[in-house]
Amino acid sequence: MTARMKNPAMVLPDAMKGIQNIYKAMYQGGVPPQIMELVHLRASQINGCSACVFAGVTNAKKAGETDERLHAVAAWREAPFFTGEERAALALTEAATRLADRSGPAVPDAVWDEAADHFNEEQLSAIILMIGLTNLFNRLNATIQGARRRDLGLTAVRARAPAPTGTDRRRGGRGRRPAARGHAIIPYGHNPDGTAPRTDRPSP
């Protein structure tokens, strides 16, 4: 089985250029890679994008995450494994992803204020962009049925931040900066030419 079409971001070259520029800027925002991957994973869980969840877990482990913490992301409020910074980022992710679930402001002041207490403006920008782009890819996969098909959902590729080195910090905070990053971006679930990837992979 195949997806309904190639990922639209691969069909329109200028779209991919824009996404690449956003990713490049996003990873220069000073947020530790682990937090960025937690944000991506939680949004993908909420949206039910299996390709993005699978790739997110893989990339998070490469960024240094443990199985113990990854298993608890969906229940992070009850889990003891996450820092205040990570909890603030996850709460913001949930609010900004579930925009239609509230009758009042989609992102309550309490959620925003908690995030702003832990991250500066550049870091908040990076987190918000990660939330937005993850939701974009989740919706692209859902629309073209890329995430539900076995031949598209298991080798999803996305730019990822390298493991922290040098002056990189494990936790976030105001004014902390990871090393500069530059990666080519491929939408989740596609090879560089936009075709379906191999299918001889284990199910997530």
Structural summary, described in words:
- There is one protein chain.
- The chain is an all-alpha fold.
- The chain has helices at 8-11, 13-26, 33-47, 50-62, 67-71, 84-97, 109-118, 121-144.
- The radius of gyration is 16 Å and the shape is globular.
- The relative contact order is 0.23.
- Mean pLDDT is 77; it is low at 148-204.
What are the segments in which pLDDT stays under 50 over at least 5 consecutive residues?
148-204
SS class: mainly alpha
Order of helices and strands: HHHHHHHH
Q: Indicate the overall shape.
A: globular
Layout of strands and helices, then pairs:
Layout: H1 8-11, H2 13-26, H3 33-47, H4 50-62, H5 67-71, H6 84-97, H7 109-118, H8 121-144
List keywords for this structure.
204 residues; mainly alpha; globular
Briefly, what is this?
Helix content is 49%, strand content 0%. The chain has helices spanning 8-11, 13-26, 33-47, 50-62, 67-71, 84-97, 109-118, 121-144.
